[in-house]
Design brief:
Elements: H1 7-36, H2 41-65, H3 73-96, H4 105-129, H5 137-162, H6 170-196, H7 207-220, H8 224-234
């Protein structure tokens, strides 16, 4: 099924990408300048930390932004907002950690841990939801199970961040490890299954047909879209039943 992206969504996607590219570029330039300067010092270390944070959370935002223009775009928008907010909190902590009272550090660390866990979960879920239109039962079932296990793992991590005693519970940490492994397994197996078991849907091109069109377009020195337009223009439209 062809997805037609509305103009506002397209503009929003472009704005998100431009903001990410500009922010990460500025952070990267600052990091390079600091490294070329030799002695890092406190400011230099914070600039490098900011570069790493901006890069990591920009990747999460980009993953969530892939859903813009799709049926699940509300989830993607929420993921973009959560990831961006979490990144801003971490950057603020890097630069203003001296202003945080000692008794508030536990709360700050819990908020940061929660933000990181949610950003990772939204990013991974957004990439998996790109397969939501697959019709193969095995792929759909695997996708639902993986998303459910991902939600469970995220909830367990957030609970552990806010209840520090959970990290000392042997059964809890073992369960968390098992759930995390299942998430990683599903994140690998489900996309692989979607590649090995492509949909057989009417009105869509198979991988073989698409490859043949691309090869022929390259041979003619034109784009595949131009080749399709030329073939359709050269082929007469079939007469409808009403015309007969």
């Amino acid at each position: 099924m062809t997805v037609i992206t509305p103009a506002p969504v397209t503009r929003l996607r472009r704005v998100v990408v431009v903001v990410i590219v500009v922010a990460f570029s500025l952070a990267a330039i600052g990091g390079i300048v600091v490294l070329l300067g030799g002695n890092l010092g406190d400011i230099g270390s914070r600039i490098l930390a900011t570069t790493s944070v901006v890069g990591a959370f920009s990747l999460a935002v980009l993953c969530c932004a892939t859903l813009l223009g799709r049926a699940q775009q509300l989830f993607g928008v929420i993921g973009v907002a959560v990831s961006a907010l979490a990144g801003l909190i971490v950057v603020w902590t890097v630069w203003f950690q001296d202003t945080i009272p000692g008794d508030a550090w536990d709360t700050v660390n819990r908020i940061i841990g929660t933000g990181v866990a949610l950003a990772i979960a939204f990013a991974l879920a957004s990439l998996l939801l790109l397969l939501a239109d697959r019709r193969r039962a095995a792929v759909r079932i695997g996708l639902v199970i993986t998303l459910a296990v991902l939600a469970l793992a995220t909830a367990m991590y957030v609970f552990a961040f806010w209840n520090g005693d959970a990290w000392s519970w042997d059964g809890y940490t073992r369960s968390l490890g098992i759930v995390s492994i299942l998430v990683a397994l599903g994140a690998i197996v489900v996309p692989v299954m979607s590649l090995l078991m492509p949909d057989d849907r009417p009105g869509t091109l198979s991988h073989t047909a698409a490859s043949r069109l691309e090869d022929e377009a390259r041979r003619r020195g034109i784009t595949p879209d131009a080749l399709v337009d030329a073939l359709l223009a050269a082929s007469p439209a079939p007469s409808s039943q009403e015309d007969r």
